[in-house]
Amino acid sequence: MHQKSQSAIEFIVLASFMLLVIVSFFAVASSKVLESKEESNRRISQDIAEFAYNEIEMAKSVNDGYTRTFIMPQTVNGVDYSISIVDNRELIVNYLEHEYVKFLPSNVTGNMTKGSNNISKNKGIVFIN
User: Each residue of 69-81: pLDDT tens digit?
Assistant: First the structure.
């Protein structure tokens, strides 16, 4: 009788240990997947800001009289986002609760929106919309 109960206890301990190992593996794997998704969302918000910033930098580097219309997408990967210029100094993009801020060069005025944006340069000042 003693032998059977010892075998049953050993089996339960072994099965519990294996269950703990499997649960731990899935917990680590799911946290890595979540971390990767968060990094991807942060990069997307950065890419949106970089696209808009490059348009401003291009206008800043050319001569007066420059005019261009460019389009910011309405959604990215089917997800809504927001883009704005605050105090003519900061370009701010919010995408899935990730905020990315890019500081603008001096002499930039206006605001950026999703959709069509007009950018021009007159007297050394870059005007957006």
Answer: 999 999 988 899 9
Torsion angles phi and psi, residue 92, rounded to 5:
-120, 130
Helix, strand, coil fractions of the chain, as percent rounded to 5: 45, 35, 20
pTM for this one?
0.74
The residues near 62 (Cβ < 8 Å, ≥ 6 apart) are 121
What single letter denotes the amino acid at residue 18? M
Q: Are 55 and 119 in contact (CB under 8 A)?
A: yes
CA 88 – CA 4 distance, rounded (Å)? 79
DSSP 104: P
Q: What is the pLDDT of residues 21-60, one digit of tens each?
A: 999 999 999 999 999 999 988 999 999 999 999 999 999 9
